[in-house]
Amino acid sequence: MNQPITIVRLSPDSDHVATVASWTFAEWGHLNPGYAADTWREALRRECGDGGVPSVFVAMEGDQPVGTAALLAEDMDSRRELTPWLASVFVLPEWRGQGIASTLIRRVEQEATDCGVHRFYLFTPDQQALYRRLGWRDHEELSYRGEEVTIMRRQLEA
Ligand SMILES: CC(C)(COP(=O)(O)OP(=O)(O)OC[C@H]1O[C@@H](n2cnc3c(N)ncnc32)[C@H](O)[C@@H]1OP(=O)(O)O)[C@@H](O)C(=O)NCCC(=O)NCCS
């Protein structure tokens, strides 16, 4: 039987850093052609702050990581004036459609609220509907690294 999903902060010395990096490198590594897998993993490790920006969270089923999401200062080098960002939202294929990404997104929103952020951003090529349902609004459409994407923004209550 499945155990309940818990959301935990990813610490830089966790064995799960390599696992999470392998997922996100497979999904988005092509957007950063200068990064090899080990450079990608060490960049993720540096994003594992102990509170506020940056922070990385992992959804756990027992001791197995099944999804991730992050709160980062920068995620789009052509929009450096926008900060911070919800980034790297990913759930393993066999765990999708159960609300795990939504729970991770809510956790990142809580982290942003707790550190005094009133508005933050994300970009997505194809998951606008998921974020709109969670209260995100379209901010700008643009072409980024060869893909048509939407920047979305979330206004947070203090
Ligand atoms: C996009 C992604 C993160 C969504 O993860 P997820 O855990 O399936 O997301 P959720 O379950 O929270 O929501 C997805 C769907 O499940 C539905 N859902 C939510 N809770 C549910 C539940 N308890 N039972 C059944 N379905 C549920 C949602 O309504 C939503 O419906 P949709 O398919 O019409 O959009 C995942 O598909 C993924 O990792 N994709 C590849 C990476 C990616 O594209 N990341 C986003 C970058 S912007």
UniProtKB/TrEMBL annotation:
Entry annotated with the keyword Transferase: yes
Matches recorded under Gene3D superfamilies: 3.40.630.30
Annotated coiled-coil segments of the chain: none
Keywords on record: Acyltransferase, Transferase
N-acetyltransferase domain: residues covered: 5-157
Protein name: GNAT family N-acetyltransferase
